[in-house]
Specification:
This protein has about 525 residues and is α/β, with parallel strands linked by helices. The chain is built from 15 helices and 21 strands. The longest helix is centred in the middle third of the chain and has 23 residues. The two termini are about 35 Å apart. Keywords: FAD, Flavoprotein, Monooxygenase, NADP, Oxidoreductase.
């Protein structure tokens, strides 16, 4: 792994140049890019025993991607073997394992090493990191934990009686494969991207399925099909055909985003398509009324399924058009008073997206955690990467880098460009050096982002989505095209950073203690 112990590092603490946290798409992409930049002194810290991130954790029945396969892979590692237009979880996870092997990353990965705490050392200009697998330090940290890593499950205070429920309880991202759902009465809580895949997958097996729906989603047809052997052969023999396919998928979505960000009123046509999709499958007008959203399509993530609506019409399925309010023994009671007796509860209630748990474990230059720094303003960073007061630390899939209609791999690769230039700038500056995002630059970037957000469907569509934080701020989605974001992250602008250096010891005044001098870029 290239770890070493040097005179400037903490006693008995291995030191690396770069520590990457997480081994999903973001973490593995960072590792590949570091190798390509000539950086070999790095480690990937993974809390689990295998790679894959959200595609390792989410292995529930029916789990698949809602982004076309040929757009859901790294541009530098095309996969010509995708079996379907929309691939399942097992194929995506296998692809990530393939990336590890092809690029020789396994020796850099520390499994079973969850980050417990990391703190900036202002004298040594490095991060001291405590993990469940042991301590280390790093000059530069890339946090690639992602927004879909920590499931959100109601607490006892939020859902009274949950703790005394006598049956089985689990989140969709922590599926209990040892529990047999066959013949059971099951409650599905939530109607997001996971739920619409789980419902049709388990409906034929369970005795009764009760869906608790606080807000109905907009659902469009899933134009899925198998990719023929001839197509796969063609892509392998003539790679430009796969590139053309990827380019077409990307281009269509770049055009679509204009309606989301600038002209939400034009989305009415898409709503009518979704309504026809529902009408074809759901003949009962009362059920259709319960399943019809009351907000503009796109305000919440648009879901794709050909099997969700048909499953809801089956005789063993009940749709409760109200959120779950309390649990009374084995009885689940909705906010509208509806009740259902169940043997198992499956929560499809999403993740800690706007309150990332990793933020509680990262301590910056002023002694505050990242969560404390963001407590009043919400998540905010410079170009989705650097937070003020947290030198030489950046996120992959940081604040306002999410997408509502395209592939996150495109955004990840843009952030990898930014990360690579960050490392280059540190090399050019030379010596023990760090870059800290200037608060004025962070403010200016976020003002631009939030100004553009004002007229987007995510802010004006009339819904409350997981894109918004507890105070109603949209700190999740990027209000533009992936092309625009790539341009904004092509390089690091040193004028947006303060350069920190370890000064020579002033033996007369400080007894030889390390000092830090601040140099404004360009000064």
């Amino acid at each position: 792994m290239g770890e070493h112990k040097g005179g400037n590092e903490g006693a008995d603490r291995p030191h690396v140049r770069v520590a990457v946290v997480g081994s999903g798409f973001g973490g593995l992409g960072a590792a590949v890019r570091l190798r390509r930049e000539g950086v070999t002194d790095f480690v990937v810290l993974e809390r689990a025993g295998s790679v894959g991130g959200t595609w390792r954790d989410n292995d529930y029945p029916g789990c698949a991607c809602d982004v076309p396969s040929h757009l859901y892979s790294f541009s530098f590692a095309p996969n010509y073997a995708w079996p379907r237009a929309f691939s399942g979880q097992e194929h995506i996870r296998a692809y990530l394992e393939h990336v590890v092997e092809v690029f020789g990353l396994r020796s850099h990965i520390r499994f079973d090493s969850e980050v417990v705490r990391m703190a900036w050392d202002a004298e040594r200009l490095c991060w001291d990191i405590e993990t469940s697998g042991g301590p280390l330090s790093a000059d530069f940290v890339v946090s690639a934990t992602g927004p879909l890593s920590d499931p959100k499950v109601p607490t006892e205070a939020e859902l009274p009686g949950l703790g005394s429920f006598p049956g089985k309880v689990f989140h969709s991202a922590r599926w209990d494969h040892g529990y047999d759902l066959r013949g059971k009465r099951v409650a599905m809580i939530g109607t997001g991207a996971s739920a619409i895949q789980i419902v049709p997958a388990i409906q034929p097996e369970v005795a009764r399925l009760t869906l608790f729906q606080r807000t109905p989603p907009w659902v469009l047809p899933r134009v899925d099909r198998g990719i023929s052997g001839a197509e796969r052969w063609l892509h392998r023999q003539l790679p430009f055909t796969a590139q053309a396919r990827r380019g077409l998928l990307w281009g269509v979505r770049e055009l679509q985003v204009q309606a989301f960000t600038k002209r939400p009123n034009q989305l009415g046509l898409v709503e009518r398509m979704a309504e026809r999709h529902m009408t074809r499958a759901v003949k009962d007008p009362e059920l259709r009324a319960r399943l019809t959203p009351g907000y503009r399509i796109g305000c919440k993530r648009i879901l794709l399924s050909n099997t969700y609506y048909p499953a809801l019409t089956r005789p063993n399925v009940d749709v409760v058009a109200s959120g779950l309010a309390k649990v009374d023994g084995s009885t689940l009671v909705a906010a509208d008073g509806s009740a259902a007796e169940v043997d198992a509860i499956v929560f499809g209630t999403g993740f800690h997206v706007t309150d990332m748990p990793i933020a509680d474990r990262v301590v910056g230059a002023d002694g505050r955690t990242l969560a404390e720094a963001w407590a009043d303003s919400g998540m905010r960073s410079l170009r989705g990467a650097s937070a003020a007061g947290f030198p030489n630390w950046m996120t992959i899939i940081g604040p306002n880098t999410g997408l509502g209609n395209s592939s996150m791999i495109l955004m990840i690769e843009s952030q990898l460009n930014y990360m690579a230039d960050f490392v280059r700038q540190l090399d050019v500056l030379g010596g023990r050096v760090a870059l800290d995002a200037r608060p004025v630059a962070v403010d200016a970037w976020n003002e631009r982002v939030q100004k553009r957000m004002e007229r987007t469907v995510w802010n004006t569509g009339g819904c409350t989505s997981w894109y918004l934080d507890a105070d109603g701020r949209n700190t999740t989605v990027w209000p533009g095209t992936t092309t625009e974001f790539r341009g904004a992250t092509r390089r690091v602008d040193l004028s947006e950073y303060t350069v920190l250096r370890v000064a020579r010891p002033d033996t007369e005044n400080s007894g030889g203690a390390m000092n830090t001098e601040t140099v404004e870029a360009g000064a």
